[in-house]
Prior knowledge:
This protein is an alpha+beta fold. It contains seven helices and 15 strands.
Amino acid sequence: MNGAYDDRDGYIWMNGTLIPWRDAKVHVLTHAMHYASSVFEGERCYSGKIFKSREHSERLIESARLLDMTIPYSVDEIEAAKYAMLKANGWTDAYVRAVAWRGAGMDMGVSAARNPVCLAVAGWEWGAYYGDAKWQGAKLDIAKWKRPSPETIPTAAKAAGLYMICTMSKHAAEAKGCSDALFMDYRGYVAEATGANVFFVKDGVVHTPKADAFLNGITRQTVIAMLKDMGIEVVERHIMPEELSGFSECWLTGTAAEVTPVGQIGDFHFQVGELTKKVSDSYEALVRS
């Protein structure tokens, strides 16, 4: 599938109905466009099965709740919508995007209690998120922006507004020839990349930032469980940026990123080592099992 995302053949599920791709439109006064009142999920379908699908649907509903929105569909209905969309497009391997937002209605200001909450499920065929970095090791910039405090915004929600600094940071990174950027949090601890969680290796032990100021990714949780099943020690803790020089390996995790090795963050370099390769291969086997 090629071309702009608003000009393609296929079908999108929107507010209870499968409609032609080009007809999936919203009004310019949609509340989400003006006030970022939107939440979403990114999922991957492998060989006809969406990995951790129900967990994603449950998180979508919870993210909406954290933004004071009630999605008018149950988990079961969202699950059915995802598979209906895949079937209509004839896909067995695809990226799935479910998005809920406050639409246009009686309110057009900060308050939007009288506006309907809408839901759409789309998808597309998508390869490796970081391209060749999937095998060679991604190069990351260090973002100038910081992940905010949970006291300022619901950081546990997968909400559109939280990605504003991600877009700016990824653009800045790409201008420097990097694939992505690494955030610190509001306290100065290592946090995450623009759309993926981060893991480090030192002396056979895996270290990953404590998810207390950013989204605790479903892929992150999956990889932690997988490592523990392998008998590998995982330490979730606050990591200072100066500690990066002491780690030998690094990788990113996310639905889009899957498990992507990192070769460089700023001036810090890492090997695409044996543990990184093992985790990547094991994850690939798991999602297709």
